[in-house]
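User: Teach me something about this protein's shape.
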Amino acid sequence: MVLAVLLFWSAWQDPANRLIGGQGDTSYMTWFIRWYPFAITHGHNPFLSTWLGYPDGINVLWSTGVPLVGWVLTPVTTLLSPIVSYNVMLTAGVALTAWCGYLAFRRWVRHDLAAAAGGLLLGFSPYMVIQSAGHPSLIVAFSVPLFLLLLDEILVRQRWTVQRGGILLGLLGAAQLLIGEEVLSTEVLTIGVGIALLCVLHRSEIRPRLPYVARTFAIAGSLALVISAVPLYFQFFGPHYIRGVIQPRNVYVSDLYNFVLPTGLQYFTPSWVGPIISRFTGNGSEWNAYLGLPLIVLCVFTAVRHRNNPTVAFVALLGLAMAVLSLGPSLHVDGTITKIHLPYLVVDRLPLFGNIIPSRLTLYVFLAAGLLLAVFIDDVVSNPRLVPVLVSVALVGLVGASLFPRLPYLSYQTDTPAFFRGADVNRFQLGEVVLVAPFAQYPEADAAQRWQAEAGMRYRMPEGYFFTADDQHRPQLGGRPYALATKLLSIELPQAIPNGVPATSSEYLADIRNHDIGAVVVGPSPHSSEAVAFLTQLLGRPPEHLDGVDVWWSVR
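Assistant: First, the predicted structure itself:
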């Protein structure tokens, strides 16, 4: 935990006003952290909300909500703020994942030092460091090493009763579903690959172990389904459910070069690397496959030296398999999409699994690498010989140096107007619809969503940065388009959003009536003066300036 706080120290110097990571999905996630305790305490369905995208609302779980985290952090959110809770979530996610990695790896090594090193590699890996910049639901991943422990017990050792194993597995799966569905999906995929590997490597062991495994999985699946039935019902059968793939295929994948080239969030990143990684497809938030040559050498050496050890052989093959799957449906080399088809094509066509982003499967590569590092260090500590020790320490030092994160870590000042944290925001009736500019729909301009969370969900908004469905249940970013929304977006993002077909004042005013907008607020932004001028002309009166914002009350 101390190391995690130090990693994110740039934000922890002022945790109520600085957010870990970069602008975009960070503001988006603070909303979900605030929404869940608000929904429960005010009697709202936590999985459906009209507090964004009013009047249609949103199906919350399609936008990577984190209900369990939101509920656990309720005291922090209520007493302090959703910004502090967000920083706690990220910091605890990294620390818990590292610590649970240590707990898991202790099963296969003799020395705590070796297990701790493996846990540190998992918790502070490039995957965790890069995803911490904006995807906190992906780094609260402590269930990953815990699944490794449970499945070792269920599939291999089989010392527990089927009831004990089934209940623990079911509880862990249900908890992960309510923390982050994509991590659970990748865990299910990895477990499937792991079971297939075990069957190939140990065919003679299938029949005697199968009855125990089947009964345990039946208990686990039944328990997880009972706990998850309500959220899954609203997600897949409630309003605004989505059919199809949300993210584009064959874009957010691991480039082959990424395994050996750092991406800028490592301390030692040569300047000549920049032009190469800039050619990778997708964006920097998904370039998390960097292992580095020292770690690759260490893993290969350990796997070859312990090739007769069933655990090491299995883990090495599983890590290799997940690295191949992270490459996506076709091989990307230096940003070029080749015509070489890869095994992920099969996964990409499975129901629901098409929404997995392949590059995020590198989490399991680092799980395997963490265990191999633990085995390597355990060897060195158990058999100390002068030259091998010196060479081994040098190799481990190179691994640490090559993966060491760039400091200070990304963070940014929120600069939330005092209006949203003060008493004046309570002049809105609870649940009143308020149009806030800059209009929230894209990550480049979604501060209004965070302001709503900091205001304690005092009001609804006819906008928001979220995924929803169109009339055919195809994925769509933001709510239904309307003239006033397009106009405000074109003011805030003039290069990205063209003005389109000009609308009349009567159409804009009709949008205000149709969305039951009771007030309008313009907060600080590069184009706030233009937004104020437009709305002053439209509404026929100037705003009241209060605590850093401009407000038009009672516009209905």
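Now, about its shape. The mean pLDDT is 93. Residues 415-556 form one domain. If you'd like, I can walk through any region in more detail.
User: That's plenty for now, thanks!
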